């Protein structure tokens, strides 16, 4: 029977997704089914039902091994099965024999009491207390522990067990530094009910009750079981018992028959950085019906798509040539044991071999070269040594959580010269750190020659685009015109279009509104929304309100919020339904301060002003230190003629967070609105000092300097900003106005010339 728990927990990895704040920032595992037919226990002559007689439900997975013994045996020792376990003598690997661990700031004691495992460490109030270990997370290379807190909360302790060294360690030094910091294990940002347990259990729902601010979280079974990937199995049991006619053996999606996209999206539910759109997911639907996966953002990916932060495998794999050629997760990994199907270079030489032919069905072998890749003639390293393995050069990895090394799944080609030019990592440079980079690049060139391809490269184009370099917009359009561009890369480039506005940019975004990939359509919707005024979006975006994928419908509804007052004609009902889906997505995450802020912003834009303040205050109840919600509340109070109340709230926050650049910037804005320009300038200057790379703070400071009569200082501030971020169009246009005001025509012309080199179709150039 399914178990109900008052708590659930953290993750051996970093949280699966960041919940994004702000209205416009809307918000995978592989284990094949081991199912028991139940033939002996059901009447042989029962009438056969149809597949749609009743929805499928979760069953006891103990029944699965009866018919799928081999798969069950493989799964038994897998990391999927052991992803989450009740704390016991057999599951707990760490030393709890009264061991003291001295962390960055806190002291943690691990001990046993009342037959259980306990931890004494600083809680949310900063005071040491005893917490019971409820569950283990993972088994190698580290194991984390989930501690029970009141109201059904489970939190992942920030001290973990190094299984190899058999020692306690702190996976991320940033955690535990300050009990009020967002990364402290006890804080809402580290809540495992929301961030972790879904991917470490089967059939999980958070079951958060906003009235009591508590969880009654539920799962069908701990660990990643059969139904986590295959879906509820009740109808499969009926099918196996011959009481149900079903083309897909009683499942909403048969993974044995699914195409590579559906299989990879099944794994991506957990093996991707994404934001949920519901409490739980629906088997058989597209990934973006239940989640919004991240694009290849500069924070999480390098220019060439290699991972640089905790993003899991999906984002890199989805942009790889391997995926484009037909590979899927189960091509290389046994989905039950999670082990590689073939060890060593033999895994790759099934396709990359002297015959130039693949031995794997379903793989497009066109373009394979007949070559012996598993030889020193190719990799130029001693056989069996580092550098001779395919993964060393084509799947370089990084260590997360301190010791968890993961290979990048983009299957990239090393090129040290290009990496040095673009500032990206490279397998050759990573291994040969003792040698100057130019020497490594020269040796690589001797072995492999120069890249003489005339096709514009994605990484080099993105280097131009994000750097605001000459030819940026041309490079952007060249990439978007490519038919072979992976969907996730196309979506990423669409997010760059608003930086280079023009009629051509709008046409490029509008064209992708009908792209077959929902990831691309969703990004195109947002690009259109950023490129044209609300009224002009109407005809372009209204059809997307009926898109078959939820994330796309939501994006269109949000972008059309601004024109609701004039009506949407025949699309009124579609808009109401889609914006309702967005609201429902946020309501399903009410335990998060970010979701409550999103709801407040939605209600403000949608004419529900009476609900805004309560949502902002609820956000601060969920997380008193979530400063974006506090700033929004201060601004709301100020805008509703309650300046003194907002002023007191902000001053109180500044006393608690004197080093917060966000609060100081907000203070400057508030002071500016009240006419106290000298005080505002001091606040803006301090915000810039604390966060010198934030363009928004720099621009606000420059404008305030200008308005105080310090034209030269304001212009110099913007010059410094543009040296750091040449692609900042708004700062450039503001500086053009300031230099023109100062009579510096040559500087104006130089800035315009740079803008024309970046984007010759920029509408600002036509006004000059």
TrEMBL record:
Q: Which regions span the lipid bilayer?
A: 16-35
Task: List residues of the Cytochrome c-552/4 domain.
Answer: 63-89, 189-231
Q: Which key words are in the record?
A: Membrane, Signal, TPR repeat, Transmembrane, Transmembrane helix
Pfam name, any one = TPR_19
Q: Does the keyword Nucleotide-binding apply?
A: no
The record's annotation in SUPFAM superfamilies points to:
ARM repeat (SSF48371), Multiheme cytochromes (SSF48695), TPR-like (SSF48452)
Would I find Ubl conjugation among this entry's keywords? Answer: no
Annotated ranges, domain Doubled CXXCH motif: 324-354
Supply the PROSITE patterns for this chain. Answer: TPR (PS50005)
Stretches forming TPR repeats: 661-694
Question: Which protein, by its recorded name, is this?
Answer: Uncharacterized protein
**UniProt organism field:** Metapseudomonas resinovorans NBRC 106553
Print the organism lineage: Bacteria, Pseudomonadati, Pseudomonadota, Gammaproteobacteria, Pseudomonadales
């Amino acid at each position: 029977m399914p178990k109900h728990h008052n708590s659930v927990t953290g993750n051996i990895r970093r949280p699966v997704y960041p919940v994004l704040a702000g209205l416009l920032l809307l918000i995978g595992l592989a284990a094949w089914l081991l199912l028991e037919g139940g033939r002996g226990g059901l009447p042989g002559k029962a009438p056969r039902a149809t597949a749609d007689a009743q929805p499928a439900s979760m069953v006891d997975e103990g029944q699965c091994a009866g018919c799928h013994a081999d798969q069950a045996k493989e799964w038994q020792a897998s990391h999927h099965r052991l992803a989450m376990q009740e704390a016991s003598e057999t599951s707990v690997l760490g030393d709890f024999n009264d061991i003291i661990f001295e962390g960055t700031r806190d002291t943690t004691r691990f001990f046993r009491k009342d037959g259980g495992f306990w931890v004494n460490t600083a809680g949310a109030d900063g005071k040491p207390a005893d917490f019971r270990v409820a569950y283990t997370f993972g088994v190698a290379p580290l194991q984390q522990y989930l501690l029970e807190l009141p109201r059904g909360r489970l939190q992942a302790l920030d001290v973990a067990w190094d299984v190899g060294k058999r020692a306690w360690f702190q996976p991320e030094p940033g955690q535990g530094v300050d009990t009020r910091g967002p990364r402290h294990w006890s804080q809402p940002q580290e809540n495992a009910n929301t961030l972790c347990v879904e991917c470490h259990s089967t059939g999980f729902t958070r079951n958060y009750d906003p009235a009591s601010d508590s969880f009654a979280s539920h799962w069908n079974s701990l660990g990643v079981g059969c139904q986590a990937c295959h879906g509820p199995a009740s109808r499969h049991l009926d099918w196996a018992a011959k009481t149900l006619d079903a083309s897909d053996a009683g499942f909403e999606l048969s993974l044995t028959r699914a195409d590579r996209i559906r299989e990879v999206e099944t794994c991506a539910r957990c093996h991707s950085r994404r934001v949920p759109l519901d409490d739980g997911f629906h088997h058989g639907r597209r990934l973006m019906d239940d989640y919004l996966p991240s694009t290849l953002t500069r924070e999480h990916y390098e220019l060439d798509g290699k991972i640089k932060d905790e993003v899991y495998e999906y984002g890199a794999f989805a942009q790889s040539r391997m995926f484009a050629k037909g590979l899927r997760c189960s091509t290389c990994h046994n989905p039950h044991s999670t082990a590689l199907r073939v060890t060593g270079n033999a895994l790759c030489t099934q396709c990359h071999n002297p015959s130039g032919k693949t031995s794997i069905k379903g793989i497009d072998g066109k373009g394979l070269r007949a070559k012996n890749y598993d030889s020193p003639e190719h990799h130029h390293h001693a056989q069996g040594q580092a550098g001779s393995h395919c993964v060393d050069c084509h799947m370089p990895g990084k260590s997360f959580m301190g010791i968890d090394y993961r290979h990048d799944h983009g299957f990239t080609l090393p090129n040290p010269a290009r990496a040095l030019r673009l500032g990206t990592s490279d397998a050759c440079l990573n291994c040969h750190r003792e040698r100057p980079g130019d020497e490594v690049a020269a040796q690589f060139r001797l072995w492999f020659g120069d890249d003489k391809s005339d096709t514009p490269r994605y990484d080099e184009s993105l280097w131009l685009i994000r750097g605001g370099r000459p030819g940026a917009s041309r490079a952007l359009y060249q990439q978007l015109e490519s038919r072979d561009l992976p969907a996730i890369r196309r979506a990423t480039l669409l997010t760059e279009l608003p930086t280079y506005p023009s009629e051509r940019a709008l046409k490029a975004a509008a064209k992708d509104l009908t792209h077959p990939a929902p990831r691309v359509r969703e990004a195109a919707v947002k690009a259109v929304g950023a490129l044209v005024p609300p009224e002009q979006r109407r005809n372009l975006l209204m059809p997307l309100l009926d898109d078959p994928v939820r994330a796309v419908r939501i994006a269109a509804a949000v972008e059309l919020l601004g024109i609701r007052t004039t009506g949407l004609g025949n699309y009124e009902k579609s808009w109401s339904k889609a914006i309702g889906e967005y609201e429902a997505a946020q309501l399903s995450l009410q335990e998060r301060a970010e979701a409550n802020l999103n709801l407040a912003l939605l209600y403000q834009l949608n004419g529900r002003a009476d609900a805004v303040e309560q949502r902002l205050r609820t956000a601060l109840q969920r997380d008193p230190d979530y400063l974006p919600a506090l700033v929004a509340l201060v601004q709301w109070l100020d805008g509703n003629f309650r300046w003194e109340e907002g002023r007191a709230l902000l001053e109180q926050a500044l006393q608690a967070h004197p080093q917060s650049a966000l609060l100081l910037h907000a203070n400057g804005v508030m002071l500016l609105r009240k006419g106290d320009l000298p005080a505002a300038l001091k606040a803006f200057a301090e915000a810039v000092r604390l966060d010198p790379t934030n363009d928004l703070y720099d621009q606000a400071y420059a404008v305030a300097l200008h308005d105080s009569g310090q034209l030269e200082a304001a212009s110099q501030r913007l010059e410094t900003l543009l040296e750091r971020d040449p692609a900042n169009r708004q700062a450039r246009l503001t500086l053009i106005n300031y230099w023109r005001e100062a009579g510096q025509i040559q500087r104006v012309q130089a800035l315009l010339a740079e803008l024309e080199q970046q984007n010759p179709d920029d509408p600002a150039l036509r006004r000059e």
